[in-house]
């Protein structure tokens, strides 16, 4: 059995699979587990990571962005990208495949991104649940199956979900964003918000662009869409109720905004994920 490594007094805590992933350079590492915890601290590995989750939402934080990984989607984490993992509950199951990436490989593998899982990928990934640990190229039964997943990813992942938000560096901006996150159902008047947090409207507008690379309206819209995805997946709410909880009084406006960002209507998203959930 592998061991767990636990370090206390402010040091990181690492699960054995984090340490074990890169022990053999040419293997594909396979790990499926019920998390049983709410946090995996910041770490990195030389291999690229395919991450699929069941049973809840997962937030993955890098130094630059906070990614939102909903059910029935996978996240590709590029090699050497430092990241921490924050499940929405201890019941979340992570399904991980770690692939060695060569310089000649497709550019897809060098960019962190989130994509829907189609039926082919889902069946292949679930087939790997019978294996744990290093799968070597000489393993003629297992290796071709897991390698097929790697080969397929650039071909079937043309549609990337914009499920990431940049992380604020300015302390006052962090406080303002936290307030907005906790009150998404409210209407926000930009000028009033700026004054409440000690900015002039002009200086706050500049800070959003400088620190986050987007306007307040763009950030607020993305934040509302991410929250709506979470509510649609985790709560037994109607689309109307979800729209209201994230600050939309008009259902058509909510549906149109969702469609522009996610690529499908909220009602279609619920239906798609219900079907995939039953298949999974």
How would you sum up this structure, described in words?
The protein is an alpha+beta fold and 280 residues long. It folds into two domains: 141 residues, Jelly Rolls; 112 residues, Homeodomain-like (Arc Repressor Mutant, subunit A), CATH 1.10.10. It is 40% helix and 20% strand. The protein is built from ten helices and eleven strands. The chain has a six-stranded antiparallel beta sheet, covered by helices on one side. Strands 2-7-4-5-11 form a five-stranded antiparallel beta sheet, with helices on one face. Strand 4 and strand 5 form a beta hairpin. Helix 2 packs antiparallel against helix 3. It comes from Olivibacter ginsenosidimutans. InterPro entries: AraC-bd (IPR003313), Homeodomain-like_sf (IPR009057), HTH-like (IPR037923), HTH_AraC (IPR018060), Tscrpt_reg_AraC-type_HTH (IPR020449).
Structural descriptors:
280 residues, alpha+beta, Jelly Rolls, Arc Repressor Mutant, subunit A, 6-stranded antiparallel sheet, 40% helix, 20% strand, disordered C terminus, HTH-like, Tscrpt_reg_AraC-type_HTH
Topology:
Blueprint: H1 16-20, E1 28-34, E2 40-43, E3 48-54, E4 58-62, E5 65-69, E6 73-77, E7 83-87, E8 93-99, E9 113-116, H2 119-127, E10 133-135, H3 143-156, E11 164-166, H4 171-182, H5 190-196, H6 201-212, H7 216-234, H8 239-245, H9 251-262, H10 266-279
Antiparallel strand pairs: 1-8, 1-10, 2-7, 3-6, 3-8, 4-5, 4-7, 5-11, 6-9
Helix pairs in contact: 2-3
